[in-house]
Amino acid sequence: MKVEYINPFISATTNVFDTMVGTELHRGVPSLKDGYQPSHEVSAVIGLSGKARGTVVLSVDREVAIQVAAALLQEQPDGLNADVADAMGEMANMIAGQAKAQLEHLCMSLSLPTVVTGKGHCIDFPRNAMRICIPFSCGWGSLALEVALAESSDSTAEVHQDVMAAQTV
């Protein structure tokens, strides 16, 4: 995976947390990650398709998820609930959307976010995509952004473009 594919996700994550929930993130050292278990208890997952395809996961501690929801909703949730899941899905959607805008040349489409909670949950990543984990911390706890993105073959990308063009006519 190219570093220029990761940097838009890193900058989008710090920007969304700063502007939307008013908290500053401190980035840790990125690393390659194996396995299917995200770093934290709550994960918002978005699929990417186009000239590159993959998965983006915003994985956060329980307390981070609750505080994000409180900041977005202006009301303190009483634990993990549907409002917290919706808030985390929206955060992941904003991060992926901002990163997508910086990667226009890949003509990517985003899936709807899916939020998974519980210790030990698993996320399936594309087999041919290397997964990069970027840890962050903030005053509420820990979180990580996990990105697995691989360029599609030229023929697949051309077919996708042709389908998208046909749908807009």
Mean of residue pLDDT? Answer: 86
Q: What is the fold-level CATH name, i.e. the topology?
A: Chemotaxis protein chec
Ranges where pLDDT stays below 50 over 5 or more residues in a row are 155-169
**From the coordinates shown, what is the CATH architecture?**
3-Layer(aba) Sandwich
If helices are DSSP runs of H or I spanning 4 or more residues, what is the number of helices? 4
Q: Characteristics of this structure?
A:
4 helices, Chemotaxis protein chec, disordered C terminus, alpha+beta, 8-stranded antiparallel sheet, 169 residues
Outline:
40% of the residues lie in helices and 27% in strands. It has 169 residues and is an alpha+beta fold.
